Structure formats: C-alpha cells, structure tokens
C-alpha cells in the first residue's frame, strides 16, 4: 500500500475513540440489565474478574495485530502468517470478523433507532404532539425502519468524514459529555427515595450466586461485547495507533474507561429501578423475576420519568441522549472497519465504500425488522454469544501460535522498549496462547 494512511492525531484521540467504540448500549443498557437479572453485586464482581482475566489480555492481542501491520483487519491477519496456507487462513478469519461486525451493526442500528425515538418522545409530548409521540413510543414497522435509517445516516456521515476529522473529533466531543451526563444523572437519582435499596443490591454481592454457570456465561459474553472484542473494530483502531504508544498501557486505559462507564451506569439504573418502584411502577413479578427484563430501559425508566413531572421530561431526554451518544461512538467503529477494508483491498473510494456498506447493512437491518420475531434474537445471539468469543480466540491463536515470537516481541517493543524484561512479557504471550483459549472454550461449551 503506497498511500499514506490516516491515523489518530493524538493519544487522547485514540483512547477516546477506542473507548467510544467500547462504551455503548452494552454498557448503559446491557450491563445494568444483566446485573439486575443476575443478583446485582454478584454479577458486578464476576464481570470485573472476567474483564481482568480474559477481556483485557485479549484486547491487547487484538490491538497488537492491527498496529503491527498498520493495515485493515483482513490485511493485518494475512500478514501474521508466513506460509500461503496461514495467510489464507488469516484472510478467512478477517472476512468472518468483518461480516460478524456488519451483522452486529445491523441490529445495533435498530436498537439505536429506538433510543432516538425515546429521546424525541418526551419533547413531542411536551409540545402536545400526541400522535407523533404515540408513533415514537410504540413498536411499529414504520417507526423501526425510519429511525434505523436516520441512525445509519448519522453513522455514515461521521465515517464519511474520515478518521481524524470524523471519528476522532466526534469521540473527543461526545465521550466527555457522556461521562458528565452519566455522573450528573446517577448523582440525581441517588438522592431520590428508594435509591438506596438499589444501591445495596448493586454493591453488596451475594456470594452464593457468584459461581452459578449462567452468571459466568453471561458475564463473559457481556465483557466481550462491551469491550468490542473479536470483531475487528478495535483491531482496525489499533492500526491507526502511533508506533510510539505503549500497547498494554493504552489497552488498560480503554478497558478502564469502558468498565468505569458500565459501573457508573449500574449506579444509575439499579437505583433508578427502585426509585421507579417507590413511585408505584412494578419492577419485579410475583415470582421475583425482573419485569420485562430485556426492555427494562424502555418500560421501567420512561414510567419513572413520567412519574417525576417536569424534571422527568429533562431527565428522560438526557438519559436517551446519553445512550444515543454512546451508541453512535460504537456504531462508527463498526462501520469504519468494513469501509476501510473495502477501501484498501479494492481501491474503492471512502465515499463509495461508506455508501455501499452503509446501504448493505441498512438492507440487512430492514430484513431483520420485517422478520423481527424470528431474526432479531437469532442475529444477536449468533453474533455476540457465539461468534465474538470464538473469533477472539482465533485472533489470539493467530498472534501467539502463527506469528513468530521475535516478531511479536518487536511489535510490543514499539512504544515500550524494555518490555522484554518485564513481567508482562514473561506472562502475557503464554497466557494468551494457552490459558485464554482454554478459558473461552470452557465457558463456551458450558453454554
Ligand atoms: N462495545 C459496544 C457496546 O458495549 O455497546 C458494542 C460493540 C461495538 C460491539 C463495536 C462490537 C464492536 F465492534
């Protein structure tokens, strides 16, 4: 590739963009919902362990693959092998990763369209436009299609602008805003009656639940999804990262930011559930299970906001705006990977690639919307529960089994010259080579 490749213009830009990819609906909706379903504190504890023992080491692996070749994911994986067979294997894994990523974007855009609707609904309601409010708040083919398309256009617009003018600029604007909004909202909710009950559930683990198989499986899946691992998005961002950056440290910052946002979202949502309960909203069914668990944020929270009068309207708009921001910084990373790959591998312009892939993903999204009951859950499960851990495992295998050790060391030495003499170098390669695949397979067969 002879052209000069664009990249992130600063370290902060990279960290915010990568954290932007990681922080998304998975943190603000997925994590608190899973925590509420799986014993609160127990889930939080196991999740933190999963991030440290599995997700973080795999994140370093994925970023390393990208930074090593400074190319798109397919080329990066191809470059790891020395024989033809291994290079072809790399290409197949790369194409699989990009395909799964595009499928994730296809359902993510539908969810994000709902977020957009729920952000607009309190405004249209305050304006007295009841028909429009009704349309926005209720599940319908037209609402799902139109809002998905609007969200896809937003994503395409940012990706179209390129890496530093689009992705980096928007991540730098949106991520700090997200933090501020989240802290302000959690702070407000914690002062409301009922909040302490939720806080206790969230922070005090029930140790009898910690080793439950279903909890372990959910926590692993959540950690992979939340850190965007196994689908080439962060591999591509790694390829935009400057050679002067220390990879383990940068990865730690990204993982730390992502986990902090999930933790903060838990501080908001779990107390909010009990505030809603104190306001007369039913959150638990008679058998003790969570009411409408998957759509928790679309049922319980709006009900709570509604019961709060004027400030509820502001909170509702703020909350869904927050989710939308998080979703957008994730979706741009999902679109950027296939766009960059098409651009570099075929020479097709960025502009064309954005339109081509954006339209293709929107068409798949539309198909999922038309056959929602059969396809939605299937696509979510196939991509996030099965494909993500499996592909992450294959990335790890390519990096530690296929790539020569001296090249791996060189890759890590860039940005951290003395890494050879650190504990990290003594442990991490064998850990990713043997322990991570074993752990993933173990949990995988469990499920
Ligand atoms: N990590 C994002 C979230 O938690 O919502 C989802 C995601 C983004 C998954 C990017 C995969 C990806 F490549």
Automatic annotation (TrEMBL):
Top-rank taxon: Bacteria
Q: Which InterPro entries match?
A: Na/ntran_symport (IPR000175), SNS_sf (IPR037272), YocR/YhdH-like (IPR047218)
Q: Which UniProt keywords apply?
A: Membrane, Transmembrane, Transmembrane helix, Transport
Membrane-spanning residues: 12-32, 44-68, 89-111, 145-163, 175-195, 215-238, 250-274, 312-332, 353-372, 384-403, 423-446
Q: What is this protein called?
A: Sodium-dependent transporter
Q: Does the keyword Transmembrane apply?
A: yes
State the membrane topology.
Multi-pass membrane protein
Q: Does the keyword Transmembrane helix apply?
A: yes
Q: Where in the cell is it found?
A: Membrane
């Amino acid at each position: 590739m002879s052209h000069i490749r664009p990249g992130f213009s600063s370290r902060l830009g990279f960290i915010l963009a990568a954290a932007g990819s990681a922080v998304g609906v998975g943190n603000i909706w997925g994590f608190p919902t899973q925590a509420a379903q799986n014993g609160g504190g127990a889930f939080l504890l196991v999740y933190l362990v999963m991030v440290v023992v599995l997700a973080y080491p795999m994140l370093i692996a994925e970023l390393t693959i990208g930074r090593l070749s400074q190319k798109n994911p397919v080329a990066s994986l191809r470059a790891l092998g020395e024989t033809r067979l291994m290079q072809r294997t790399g290409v197949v894994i790369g194409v699989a990763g990009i395909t799964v990523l595009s499928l994730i974007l296809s359902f993510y855009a539908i969810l994000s369209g709902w977020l957009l609707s729920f952000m607009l609904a309190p405004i249209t309601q305050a304006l007295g436009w009841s028909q429009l409010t009704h349309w926005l708040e209720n599940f319908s083919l037209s609402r799902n299609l139109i809002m998905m398309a609007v969200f896809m256009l937003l994503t395409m617009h940012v990706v179209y602008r390129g890496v530093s003018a689009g992705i980096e600029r928007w991540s730098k604007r949106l991520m700090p805003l997200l933090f501020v909004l989240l802290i302000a909202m959690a702070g407000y909710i914690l002062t409301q009656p009922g909040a302490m009950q939720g806080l206790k559930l969230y922070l005090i683990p029930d140790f009898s639940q910690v080793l439950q198989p279903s909890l372990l499986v959910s926590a692993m899946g959540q950690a992979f999804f939340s850190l965007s691992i196994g689908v080439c998005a962060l591999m591509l961002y790694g390829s935009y990262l400057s050679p002067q950056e220390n990879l383990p440290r940068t990865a730690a910052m990204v993982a730390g930011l992502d986990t902090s946002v999930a933790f903060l979202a838990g501080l908001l949502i779990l107390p909010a559930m009990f505030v809603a309960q104190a306001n007369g909203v039913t959150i638990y069914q008679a058998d003790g299970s969570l009411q409408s668990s998957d759509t928790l944020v679309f049922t319980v929270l709006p009900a709570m906001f509604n019961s709060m009068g004027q400030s509820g309207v502001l909170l509702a708009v703020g909350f869904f705006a927050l989710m939308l921001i998080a979703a957008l910084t994730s979706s741009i990373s999902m679109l950027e990977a296939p766009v960059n790959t098409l651009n570099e591998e075929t020479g097709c312009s960025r502009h064309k690639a954005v339109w081509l892939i954006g339209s293709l993903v929107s068409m798949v999204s539309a198909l999922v919307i038309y056959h929602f009951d059969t396809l939605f859950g299937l696509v979510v499960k196939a991509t996030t529960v099965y494909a993500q851990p499996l592909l992450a495992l294959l990335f790890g295998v390519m990096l530690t089994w296929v790539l020569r050790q001296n090249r791996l060391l060189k890759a890590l030495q860039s940005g951290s010259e003395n890494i050879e003499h650190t504990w990290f170098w003594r442990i991490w390669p064998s850990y990713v080579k043997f322990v991570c695949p074993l752990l993933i397979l173990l949990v995988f067969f469990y499920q």
